[in-house]
Request: fold
Amino acid sequence: MSFDFSDLHVFVSGGSSGINLGIAEAFAGAGARLSLMSRSAGKVEAAAARLRGLGAEAAGYSADVRQPDAVQAALAAAHTRFGDIDVLVSGAAGNFLATALGMSPNGFKTVVDIDLLGSFNVLRLSHPFLRKPGACLISLSASQAFVPTPFQAHVCAAKSGVDMLTRVLALEWGPEGIRINSIVPGPVADTEGLSRLAPTPETLEAMARRVPLRRLGSRADIANLAMVLASPLGEWITGAVIPVDGGISLTGPRDFAAAAEAAAAGRSAA
Ligand code: COA
Ligand code: NAP
Reply:
């Protein structure tokens, strides 16, 4: 199925790599104008250049989602350049493997600040710049939001908060014609997120075997749902938390003990 998004301005927070960049590429391929935001000016400019190489209009902005003033400035600059935001993807996140006892209060806070407070900042500050009615917002969640998962206390707490934020904003902003949904990716091949949870070939294979559909996801698997949600096909969907995960979230908590050991060994060897 092909989509025509040539009228749309798509803003992607955390859009300089991985799944979020995959979503940006999919919208760029369908004609949209892209604004990308992430911390590293070099990474986000390289990602925007990559989209321009695909023939899209694209710009990159450097901002940390934990800093509201910087986020506000990026959104304002994107709005000045490409107009009202039709699709906003809130996907910036951080993760590492550690038990609750193995992470400091600042380690816990860091992930909650990026994933949850950062989502709040991006979504809340985007409001004046959104197309009303018509905007489609997408939060990137994770199965840790509803599957209690050892070694992931920070991500579990943060992403369950992200899904609640999605639902509350669906209620508060629905009357203005703004929709918001969470996409819950399963393990997606060749991403930073997966490399942190499955850092060795053995742990990666075990992860793929665990998926009921018996393969890891691709960035396109996730982008496909984002495009459906942004298209007229999604116009009555809001406040939904939708897994795109080959069924893995049905299989209960994963065991990250071996992965955590391998990651710790990698850190001490470096
Ligand atoms: N185990 C335990 N604690 C860890 C840790 C680990 N593997 N990695 C970082 N921390 C702790 C640090 O020790 C620090 O706590 P302290 O001050 O008490 O020592 C705290 O987390 C903050 O670390 P810092 O490196 O200053 O944070 P940052 O803001 O620069 O980076 C991270 C945030 C740690 C999440 C970093 O990994 C990151 O930028 N990730 C983005 C990419 C990513 O994670 N992608 C996957 C998305 S799902
Ligand atoms: P990734 O490649 O590491 O992407 C993270 C993005 O967020 C990068 O663009 C990074 O760029 C940016 N970022 C990180 N911290 C930031 C901050 N404080 N402020 C602004 N930008 C920040 O991640 P990924 O693995 O593709 O994951 C993408 C999303 O999908 C995340 O929300 C993740 O939780 C979710 N997810 C991923 C998987 C998976 O298998 N990968 C599974 C489930 C859910 P900078 O470094 O330049 O800031």
Notes: The domain at 9-269 is CATH 3.40.50.720 (Rossmann fold). The first strand starts at residue 9 and ends at 13. The chain has a mean pLDDT of 97. The chain has nine helices and seven strands.
